[in-house]
Write a structure and sequence with these properties.
This protein has helices at about 1-20, 30-55, 60-65, 70-120, 125, 130-160, 170-185, 185-195, 195-205, 215-240, 250-280, 290-310, 315-345. By secondary structure, the chain is mostly helical. The protein has one domain. The protein is globular.
Length: about 350
């Protein structure tokens, strides 16, 4: 039951991640950098600190005993993830939700899942365990589903290319940003992996399944710093810093509305971290597969979100068929990974 519970918690986190960008489309008279920095302050700086203070017992003692090297590595890798997250937000402008998730998350799924145990020299040992072949099958099926999502996105581009009222969709501009986002977003899996010694100390003091929250203090703060630098650069370049206090015309209601959307985005984005941590500690022998499960579900739910937001309303039947097939394959991938984790949890696995 721990494995099933873990997968369900990953599903909640993935749903939160899939929905976290939806408020962006409703922002009024704010430049991208204003909105992005406002929500980043919530999800990458404020919430990680507040939640850690609430959920980690004796947090001052935990931080004093935790290895400094783990803190530094988690922070640095989180900073790289922040660059990827920024590229991700920019890519959505040109590719939409579904295709951006498909490309960048596909890359992140493979790199973020397999490279941490490979670098530790544990991958060969892990894949030789009972049920590990199902984990590998699940990752492969998931990548196939993600590729199919990307193919559906390409077909979508062709379907709407002759529609004059849609000028924002650009595969040429969005693809490099999505690839960058995918590679650097995989660093977040490394950031959590390298921060595990901090969580181990928190567990010793009774943090239990909430132990991962202490890592976010470092991984997410690193992401916030790189985001802050880039957004401040854009503010200086475009002279938009005044937008935090005024949206023009003195309409305070619009300013309050924008802040509410940024706060909602921040809570949704942080939700994926919170539930990821809760799910990860329940995955047993194959904890490393948490990243793949989370990423595959993220693509699945983001595609559904794209459907609900009518991003696919003007596509042809062939495109809709490919997208439907992709969703079925992604569901199969999640079920396969869940079965592999179940096999890893039975006594025969040990």
């Amino acid at each position: 039951m721990d494995v099933i519970t873990g997968v369900l918690l990953h599903a909640i986190g993935a749903t939160s991640a899939a929905l976290c960008y939806t408020p962006q489309k409703k922002v009024v008279r704010w430049s991208w950098q204003t909105y992005w920095l406002a929500q980043a302050f919530i999800c990458w700086l404020l919430l990680p600190i507040v939640v850690a203070l609430i959920t980690i017992p004796n947090i001052a003692q935990v931080l004093s005993e935790a290895p400094t090297s783990a803190m530094v590595r988690s922070f640095a890798l989180g900073a790289a993830y922040g660059v990827g997250g920024t590229a991700f937000g920019l890519a959505i402008r040109y590719l939409g939700f579904s295709l951006t998730y498909a490309i960048s998350v596909g890359i992140s799924c493979v790199l973020g899942t397999l490279l941490p145990p490979f670098i530790r020299g544990e991958l060969n040992t892990i894949v030789s365990r009972y049920g590990a072949e199902w984990i590998m099958y699940g990752i492969a099926i998931g990548v196939l589903g993600i590729i199919l999502c990307g193919s559906a996105g390409r077909l979508k581009e062709k379907d709407i290319s002759n529609q004059q009222d849609d000028t924002s969709f650009s595969f040429a501009k969005g693809l490099p940003l999505s690839i960058m986002a995918g590679v650097l977003s995989a660093f977040y899996g490394f950031a959590l992996d390298q921060g595990q010694p901090i969580a181990d100390v928190a567990a010793k003091y009774g943090a239990g399944n909430l132990q991962g929250n202490v890592i976010y203090i470092f991984s997410n703060t690193g992401a916030f710093i790189t985001t802050l630098i880039y957004c401040l650069y854009l503010h200086k370049k475009h002279r938009t810093a005044h937008e935090y206090t005024s949206v023009g015309g003195g309409k305070q209601r619009l300013l309050t509305f924008n802040y509410a959307l940024a706060i909602l985005t921040g809570f949704l984005w942080y939700g994926q971290f919170f539930f990821y941590g809760l799910g990860h500690v329940r995955m047993g022998t194959y904890q490393f597969s948490s990243w793949a499960i989370h990423m595959i579900m993220l693509v699945l739910f983001s595609a559904v979100a794209g459907l609900l937001m009518r991003e696919w309303s003007r596509v042809q039947k062939r495109t809709a068929f490919v997208l439907a097939l992709a969703l079925l394959v992604l569901i199969a991938a999640v079920l396969t990974l869940t079965y592999g984790n179940y096999l890893g949890s039975v006594p025969a696995a040990h």
